[in-house]
Amino acid sequence: MPNSIPLVTIFGGSGFVGRYIARRMARAGWRVRVAVRRPNEAMHVLPYGEVGQITIVQANIRDTDSTRAAIKGADAVVNCVGILAEDSRQKFSEVHGRGASRIARLAAEEGVKKLVHLSSLSADPDAESDYARSKAVGEADVLKNFPDAVILRPSVIFGTEDRFFNLFGTLSRYLPFMPVVGGNTRFQPVYVDDVAAAAEAALLGDARGVYALGGPDVETMTALMQRLLRVVQRKKFLIDIPFGLARINAFFIEMWHKLSLGMVPLVLTRDQVKSLKVDNVVPEGAPGLADLGIKPTSMDAVLEGYLYRFRSQGQFNELTDSAKNLRG
Fold first, then answer.
1. Fewer Cβ atoms within 10 A, N terminus or C terminus of the chain?
2. What is the pLDDT of residue 261?
3. What's the domain range around 46?
4. Contacts (Cβ under 8 Å, ≥6 apart) of 241
5. 139: number of Cβ within 10 Å
6. Chain-wide mean pLDDT for the chain?
7. What angle do CA 199, 203, 204 make, to 5 degrees?
8. Model's pTM, two decimal places?
9. Is 183 within a domain?
Protein backbone atom coordinates (compact mmCIF):
# COMPACT_ATOMS: atom_id res chain seq x y z
CA MET A 1 0.00 0.00 0.00
CA PRO A 2 1.19 3.60 -0.59
CA ASN A 3 3.50 5.01 2.08
CA SER A 4 1.34 8.14 2.12
CA ILE A 5 -1.29 6.19 4.05
CA PRO A 6 -0.69 6.56 7.84
CA LEU A 7 0.85 3.60 9.65
CA VAL A 8 0.15 2.37 13.17
CA THR A 9 2.27 -0.20 14.97
CA ILE A 10 0.31 -2.27 17.49
CA PHE A 11 2.41 -4.20 19.99
CA GLY A 12 0.43 -7.27 20.99
CA GLY A 13 -1.85 -6.64 18.01
CA SER A 14 -2.88 -10.28 17.71
CA GLY A 15 -4.03 -10.58 21.33
CA PHE A 16 -7.45 -10.24 22.89
CA VAL A 17 -7.69 -6.43 22.70
CA GLY A 18 -5.05 -5.82 20.05
CA ARG A 19 -6.89 -7.70 17.31
CA TYR A 20 -9.96 -5.48 17.77
CA ILE A 21 -7.82 -2.35 17.54
CA ALA A 22 -6.11 -3.73 14.42
CA ARG A 23 -9.47 -4.35 12.78
CA ARG A 24 -10.77 -0.87 13.62
CA MET A 25 -7.65 0.88 12.34
CA ALA A 26 -7.72 -1.15 9.13
CA ARG A 27 -11.35 -0.14 8.60
CA ALA A 28 -10.33 3.47 9.23
CA GLY A 29 -8.00 3.14 6.24
CA TRP A 30 -4.67 2.96 8.08
CA ARG A 31 -1.83 0.59 7.38
CA VAL A 32 -1.43 -1.68 10.37
CA ARG A 33 1.80 -3.25 11.58
CA VAL A 34 1.19 -5.98 14.14
CA ALA A 35 4.26 -6.51 16.34
CA VAL A 36 4.34 -9.85 18.16
CA ARG A 37 6.85 -12.31 19.55
CA ARG A 38 5.59 -15.19 17.41
CA PRO A 39 4.44 -14.00 13.96
CA ASN A 40 3.33 -17.48 12.90
CA GLU A 41 0.66 -17.35 15.62
CA ALA A 42 -0.72 -13.99 14.47
CA MET A 43 -1.90 -14.87 10.95
CA HIS A 44 -5.55 -14.55 12.00
CA VAL A 45 -5.30 -10.74 11.88
CA LEU A 46 -4.42 -10.56 8.17
CA PRO A 47 -8.05 -10.86 6.92
CA TYR A 48 -9.03 -7.80 8.97
CA GLY A 49 -7.75 -5.57 6.17
CA GLU A 50 -7.22 -5.46 2.43
CA VAL A 51 -4.35 -7.40 0.87
CA GLY A 52 -1.12 -5.82 2.10
CA GLN A 53 -2.86 -3.47 4.53
CA ILE A 54 -1.86 -5.47 7.61
CA THR A 55 1.67 -6.77 8.10
CA ILE A 56 3.07 -8.89 10.91
CA VAL A 57 6.56 -8.31 12.30
CA GLN A 58 8.56 -10.03 14.99
CA ALA A 59 9.32 -7.91 18.05
CA ASN A 60 10.00 -8.50 21.70
CA ILE A 61 9.49 -5.47 23.93
CA ARG A 62 12.34 -6.71 26.12
CA ASP A 63 14.67 -6.22 23.15
CA THR A 64 15.55 -2.68 22.04
CA ASP A 65 16.56 -3.45 18.45
CA SER A 66 13.44 -5.42 17.47
CA THR A 67 11.20 -2.90 19.26
CA ARG A 68 12.80 0.02 17.45
CA ALA A 69 12.52 -1.76 14.10
CA ALA A 70 8.80 -2.32 14.69
CA ILE A 71 8.29 1.37 15.50
CA LYS A 72 10.43 2.88 12.75
CA GLY A 73 8.36 4.73 10.17
CA ALA A 74 5.12 4.53 12.17
CA ASP A 75 2.88 7.55 12.64
CA ALA A 76 1.30 6.07 15.79
CA VAL A 77 1.98 3.29 18.26
CA VAL A 78 -0.35 1.28 20.48
CA ASN A 79 0.95 -0.89 23.31
CA CYS A 80 -1.43 -3.73 24.21
CA VAL A 81 1.17 -6.05 25.71
CA GLY A 82 0.31 -7.34 29.16
CA ILE A 83 0.29 -10.47 31.29
CA LEU A 84 -2.11 -11.58 34.02
CA ALA A 85 0.37 -13.88 35.76
CA GLU A 86 4.13 -14.20 35.88
CA ASP A 87 6.16 -17.18 34.76
CA SER A 88 9.86 -18.03 34.58
CA ARG A 89 10.40 -15.65 31.64
CA GLN A 90 7.66 -13.05 31.78
CA LYS A 91 7.70 -10.77 34.83
CA PHE A 92 5.35 -7.90 35.64
CA SER A 93 8.24 -5.48 36.13
CA GLU A 94 9.72 -6.36 32.75
CA VAL A 95 6.52 -6.40 30.68
CA HIS A 96 4.40 -3.69 32.33
CA GLY A 97 7.31 -1.56 33.52
CA ARG A 98 10.52 -1.63 31.50
CA GLY A 99 8.81 -2.92 28.34
CA ALA A 100 6.24 -0.12 28.34
CA SER A 101 8.97 2.42 29.10
CA ARG A 102 11.09 1.12 26.22
CA ILE A 103 8.21 1.45 23.73
CA ALA A 104 7.47 5.02 24.84
CA ARG A 105 11.12 6.08 24.75
CA LEU A 106 11.74 4.60 21.30
CA ALA A 107 8.47 6.01 19.97
CA ALA A 108 9.61 9.50 21.03
CA GLU A 109 13.05 8.98 19.53
CA GLU A 110 11.54 7.82 16.21
CA GLY A 111 9.27 10.84 15.96
CA VAL A 112 5.97 8.98 16.46
CA LYS A 113 3.09 11.44 16.62
CA LYS A 114 0.71 9.50 18.89
CA LEU A 115 1.07 6.80 21.51
CA VAL A 116 -1.75 4.87 23.16
CA HIS A 117 -0.89 2.70 26.16
CA LEU A 118 -3.27 0.06 27.50
CA SER A 119 -3.04 -0.12 31.28
CA SER A 120 -5.54 -1.27 33.92
CA LEU A 121 -8.13 0.32 36.18
CA SER A 122 -6.35 -1.40 39.06
CA ALA A 123 -3.08 0.52 38.47
CA ASP A 124 -1.90 1.89 41.81
CA PRO A 125 1.67 2.56 42.98
CA ASP A 126 0.66 1.69 46.54
CA ALA A 127 -1.30 -1.48 45.73
CA GLU A 128 -0.68 -4.76 47.52
CA SER A 129 -0.76 -6.56 44.17
CA ASP A 130 2.45 -6.72 42.12
CA TYR A 131 0.33 -6.59 38.95
CA ALA A 132 -1.36 -3.33 39.96
CA ARG A 133 1.90 -1.71 41.08
CA SER A 134 3.68 -2.68 37.86
CA LYS A 135 0.87 -1.16 35.81
CA ALA A 136 1.26 2.12 37.72
CA VAL A 137 5.03 2.09 37.21
CA GLY A 138 4.49 1.53 33.49
CA GLU A 139 2.09 4.45 33.25
CA ALA A 140 4.52 6.78 34.97
CA ASP A 141 7.39 5.75 32.72
CA VAL A 142 5.26 6.08 29.59
CA LEU A 143 4.25 9.64 30.48
CA LYS A 144 7.84 10.50 31.42
CA ASN A 145 9.11 9.42 28.01
CA PHE A 146 6.06 10.46 25.95
CA PRO A 147 4.15 13.20 27.84
CA ASP A 148 1.33 13.43 25.28
CA ALA A 149 0.54 9.70 25.45
CA VAL A 150 -3.04 8.53 25.96
CA ILE A 151 -3.41 5.93 28.71
CA LEU A 152 -6.48 3.71 28.75
CA ARG A 153 -7.41 2.05 32.05
CA PRO A 154 -10.10 -0.59 31.45
CA SER A 155 -11.88 -2.57 34.13
CA VAL A 156 -12.37 -6.30 33.50
CA ILE A 157 -12.69 -6.71 29.72
CA PHE A 158 -15.32 -9.06 28.33
CA GLY A 159 -15.78 -10.40 24.83
CA THR A 160 -15.68 -13.57 22.78
CA GLU A 161 -12.05 -14.39 23.58
CA ASP A 162 -11.96 -13.12 27.18
CA ARG A 163 -10.23 -14.92 30.02
CA PHE A 164 -12.83 -13.99 32.61
CA PHE A 165 -16.30 -15.24 31.70
CA ASN A 166 -14.86 -18.03 29.55
CA LEU A 167 -12.83 -19.30 32.51
CA PHE A 168 -15.82 -19.40 34.84
CA GLY A 169 -17.99 -20.81 32.07
CA THR A 170 -15.55 -23.71 31.78
CA LEU A 171 -15.55 -24.22 35.56
CA SER A 172 -19.36 -24.30 35.54
CA ARG A 173 -19.20 -27.37 33.32
CA TYR A 174 -17.06 -29.46 35.61
CA LEU A 175 -17.41 -28.26 39.20
CA PRO A 176 -20.37 -29.15 41.41
CA PHE A 177 -20.24 -25.59 42.81
CA MET A 178 -18.82 -22.21 41.81
CA PRO A 179 -16.00 -20.89 44.00
CA VAL A 180 -16.10 -17.12 44.48
CA VAL A 181 -13.12 -15.12 45.74
CA GLY A 182 -13.86 -11.51 46.67
CA GLY A 183 -17.62 -11.91 46.43
CA ASN A 184 -18.31 -8.34 47.55
CA THR A 185 -15.65 -6.73 45.36
CA ARG A 186 -17.21 -4.53 42.67
CA PHE A 187 -16.35 -4.56 38.97
CA GLN A 188 -17.43 -2.51 35.97
CA PRO A 189 -16.84 -4.86 33.00
CA VAL A 190 -16.18 -3.14 29.68
CA TYR A 191 -16.73 -4.63 26.22
CA VAL A 192 -13.53 -5.32 24.29
CA ASP A 193 -14.64 -3.48 21.16
CA ASP A 194 -15.45 -0.41 23.27
CA VAL A 195 -11.84 -0.46 24.48
CA ALA A 196 -10.72 -0.76 20.85
CA ALA A 197 -13.01 2.14 19.94
CA ALA A 198 -11.37 4.21 22.69
CA ALA A 199 -7.94 3.46 21.23
CA GLU A 200 -9.20 4.40 17.77
CA ALA A 201 -10.67 7.67 19.08
CA ALA A 202 -7.38 8.47 20.80
CA LEU A 203 -5.43 7.86 17.59
CA LEU A 204 -7.78 9.81 15.33
CA GLY A 205 -8.70 12.64 17.70
CA ASP A 206 -7.08 15.10 20.08
CA ALA A 207 -7.33 13.07 23.29
CA ARG A 208 -4.50 13.05 25.81
CA GLY A 209 -4.11 11.95 29.39
CA VAL A 210 -5.70 9.07 31.29
CA TYR A 211 -9.13 7.57 30.60
CA ALA A 212 -10.87 5.10 32.93
CA LEU A 213 -12.96 2.66 30.91
CA GLY A 214 -15.96 0.87 32.36
CA GLY A 215 -19.24 -0.43 31.04
CA PRO A 216 -22.75 0.61 32.10
CA ASP A 217 -23.06 -2.12 34.75
CA VAL A 218 -21.37 -2.17 38.17
CA GLU A 219 -21.71 -5.55 39.89
CA THR A 220 -20.03 -7.53 42.65
CA MET A 221 -18.12 -10.69 41.84
CA THR A 222 -21.00 -12.70 43.28
CA ALA A 223 -23.50 -10.92 41.03
CA LEU A 224 -21.27 -11.54 37.99
CA MET A 225 -21.17 -15.25 38.75
CA GLN A 226 -24.96 -15.30 39.16
CA ARG A 227 -25.27 -13.54 35.81
CA LEU A 228 -22.95 -16.11 34.21
CA LEU A 229 -24.97 -19.03 35.57
CA ARG A 230 -28.19 -17.52 34.22
CA VAL A 231 -26.66 -17.19 30.76
CA VAL A 232 -25.22 -20.72 30.69
CA GLN A 233 -28.44 -22.06 32.27
CA ARG A 234 -26.75 -24.04 35.01
CA LYS A 235 -27.72 -24.29 38.66
CA LYS A 236 -24.71 -24.22 40.93
CA PHE A 237 -24.14 -23.26 44.53
CA LEU A 238 -21.91 -20.23 44.96
CA ILE A 239 -19.37 -20.77 47.71
CA ASP A 240 -17.52 -17.71 48.98
CA ILE A 241 -13.84 -18.50 49.53
CA PRO A 242 -12.17 -16.37 52.24
CA PHE A 243 -9.05 -14.54 51.08
CA GLY A 244 -6.80 -16.50 53.44
CA LEU A 245 -7.99 -19.85 52.12
CA ALA A 246 -7.88 -18.52 48.55
CA ARG A 247 -4.19 -17.66 48.96
CA ILE A 248 -3.45 -21.19 50.12
CA ASN A 249 -5.37 -22.66 47.19
CA ALA A 250 -3.59 -20.30 44.79
CA PHE A 251 -0.21 -21.42 46.15
CA PHE A 252 -0.97 -25.05 45.32
CA ILE A 253 -2.41 -24.13 41.91
CA GLU A 254 0.81 -22.26 41.10
CA MET A 255 2.90 -25.20 42.29
CA TRP A 256 0.92 -27.75 40.29
CA HIS A 257 1.12 -25.50 37.26
CA LYS A 258 4.91 -25.43 37.46
CA LEU A 259 5.33 -29.12 38.22
CA SER A 260 3.03 -30.09 35.36
CA LEU A 261 4.98 -27.81 32.96
CA GLY A 262 1.86 -25.80 32.32
CA MET A 263 -0.56 -28.68 31.80
CA VAL A 264 -2.51 -27.68 34.93
CA PRO A 265 -4.12 -24.31 34.05
CA LEU A 266 -3.19 -21.32 36.18
CA VAL A 267 -6.74 -20.39 37.15
CA LEU A 268 -5.75 -18.38 40.22
CA THR A 269 -2.54 -16.87 41.60
CA ARG A 270 -1.71 -15.39 44.97
CA ASP A 271 -1.23 -12.00 43.35
CA GLN A 272 -4.69 -12.18 41.79
CA VAL A 273 -6.14 -12.88 45.23
CA LYS A 274 -4.60 -9.59 46.38
CA SER A 275 -6.17 -7.78 43.40
CA LEU A 276 -9.58 -9.22 44.20
CA LYS A 277 -9.63 -7.35 47.49
CA VAL A 278 -9.96 -3.98 45.72
CA ASP A 279 -12.95 -2.58 43.80
CA ASN A 280 -12.34 -2.24 40.07
CA VAL A 281 -14.71 0.58 39.08
CA VAL A 282 -14.34 3.92 37.36
CA PRO A 283 -13.63 6.71 39.89
CA GLU A 284 -16.29 9.39 40.07
CA GLY A 285 -15.55 12.25 37.68
CA ALA A 286 -12.77 10.46 35.85
CA PRO A 287 -12.64 10.92 32.04
CA GLY A 288 -13.96 7.80 30.33
CA LEU A 289 -15.72 6.38 27.31
CA ALA A 290 -18.26 9.19 27.10
CA ASP A 291 -15.45 11.75 26.83
CA LEU A 292 -14.19 9.83 23.79
CA GLY A 293 -17.65 9.82 22.21
CA ILE A 294 -18.35 6.15 22.94
CA LYS A 295 -21.56 4.70 24.35
CA PRO A 296 -20.63 1.66 26.48
CA THR A 297 -22.04 -1.75 25.57
CA SER A 298 -23.94 -3.68 28.23
CA MET A 299 -23.16 -7.26 29.20
CA ASP A 300 -26.74 -8.23 28.32
CA ALA A 301 -26.06 -7.34 24.69
CA VAL A 302 -23.00 -9.56 24.34
CA LEU A 303 -22.58 -12.39 26.87
CA GLU A 304 -25.16 -14.82 25.51
CA GLY A 305 -23.62 -14.55 22.05
CA TYR A 306 -20.47 -16.40 23.12
CA LEU A 307 -21.28 -18.10 26.43
CA TYR A 308 -24.10 -20.28 25.05
CA ARG A 309 -21.49 -22.96 24.33
CA PHE A 310 -21.23 -23.62 28.07
CA ARG A 311 -24.87 -24.70 28.28
CA SER A 312 -25.51 -28.42 28.68
CA GLN A 313 -26.80 -28.67 25.10
CA GLY A 314 -24.96 -25.67 23.71
CA GLN A 315 -26.94 -23.82 21.05
CA PHE A 316 -29.64 -26.48 21.15
CA ASN A 317 -30.72 -25.90 24.76
CA GLU A 318 -33.96 -24.13 23.80
CA LEU A 319 -34.77 -26.79 21.21
CA THR A 320 -34.19 -29.56 23.75
CA ASP A 321 -36.35 -27.83 26.34
CA SER A 322 -39.21 -27.30 23.89
CA ALA A 323 -39.04 -30.93 22.81
CA LYS A 324 -39.70 -32.00 26.41
CA ASN A 325 -43.07 -30.25 26.20
CA LEU A 326 -44.21 -32.18 23.15
CA ARG A 327 -47.03 -34.61 23.71
CA GLY A 328 -47.66 -37.70 21.63
1. C
2. 84
3. 7-157+190-214+281-294
4. 179, 180, 181, 249
5. 22
6. 94
7. 115
8. 0.93
9. no
